[in-house]
Design brief:
The chain is α/β, with parallel strands linked by helices and about 290 residues long. It is about 40% helix and about 25% strand. The protein has two domains: about 1-205, Alpha-Beta Complex (Lambda Exonuclease, Chain A); about 220-290, no CATH class.
């Protein structure tokens, strides 16, 4: 991957970004790749030498790495930090680096550090649950010890003291620990086996010049089209509806000061964050239709 510097970020940042510390070792897939769109993972591998990413888009990941390095100095006597585990399933080598394992008398607690937004904490992303259950599977499969609980330790980069005092459900501090549901072992392994099969099928299509499987709406961070009711001249919507008919029914109950505005959907990741959108036929087809 080539790192560009469109906004003249200082060279010290560029030097750090050019020396990545992350490595999945000899694994076919890391835990985070296993969760990702098989098409994106496959195309990233194929076009790695041609992909460009600007340094400005990598700053927050740099902060996340810095946070991990700092918190390593806070480990206790029963803590294991940044341990990477490896195993095989269905002929695929899978690995995962676990931020923190806490050894307790009855088993291990797993914690993952996230530098994230207040919105993500309030919604508690489902992908966090998936990621941590893969880690739990790795620990129990490789180390033969029980995992008792899972959690996210979130550091909220956009936390606001004012919003904490007035918004319902807003994190009360810039550091918040979130509990994550722990699946049973069989459910974890079945999910991982399913994801391996999806990546395997995608790789076969890529190697045989076939048609790659489409990304899902979740993969693309897709926002569906909506019909908004708002005061005439305002930007902020009073309410949103998934169909024009429902919006028109709701409008009948309001004064003539309100109107309906159609807001088209968008694929946020494809538009701004996908590193392989230039090579993606699905994204090209979507743009042509729009």
């Amino acid at each position: 991957m080539k790192i560009t510097n469109k906004f003249n970020i200082p060279q010290t940042f560029m030097n750090v970004l050019a020396r990545p510390s992350y490595s999945k070792g000899k694994a076919h897939l890391s835990a985070t790749q296993l969760l990702d769109s098989p098409k994106i993972v496959a195309l990233r591998r194929k076009f790695d030498d041609e992909i460009e990413q600007d340094a400005s888009d990598m700053v927050f990941s740099l902060f996340g790495s810095a946070l991990h390095n700092i918190l390593e100095h806070g480990k206790d006597h029963n803590h294991l930090v940044e341990e990477r585990l490896h195993t095989e399933l269905d002929g695929w080598h899978i690995s995962g680096a676990i931020d923190l394992q806490i050894k307790n008398p009855d088993g291990f607690s797993i914690r993952d550090y996230k530098t994230t937004s207040a919105w993500a904490v309030m919604k508690q992303k489902y992908e966090w649950e998936l990621q941590l259950n893969i880690y739990a599977w790795l620990v129990e499969r490789v180390k033969k010890v029980k995992v008792t609980d899972l959690g996210i330790v979130s550091v909220i980069r956009d936390w606001s003291r004012r919003d904490a005092g007035i918004k319902e459900g807003y994190p009360e501090s810039p550091i918040k620990e979130l509990s994550v549901p722990l699946w049973d072992y069989e459910a974890r392994e079945a999910y991982i086996s399913k994801r391996i099969a999806m990546h395997s099928a995608c790789d076969f299509e890529l190697e045989t010049s076939g048609v790659l499987p489409d990304c899902t709406p979740e993969d693309m961070w897709e926002k569906p089209a909506v019909w908004a009711i708002k005061k005439t001249g305002n930007i902020r919507a009073k309410s949103l509806y998934s169909s024009k008919e429902h919006a028109e029914e709701a409008l009948k109950e309001l004064s003539k000061e309100y109107e309906i505005e159609y807001r088209p959907g968008e694929r946020t990741r494809c538009m701004s964050y996908c590193p392989v959108s230039n090579w993606c036929q699905q994204w090209r087809d979507y743009q042509e239709v729009k």
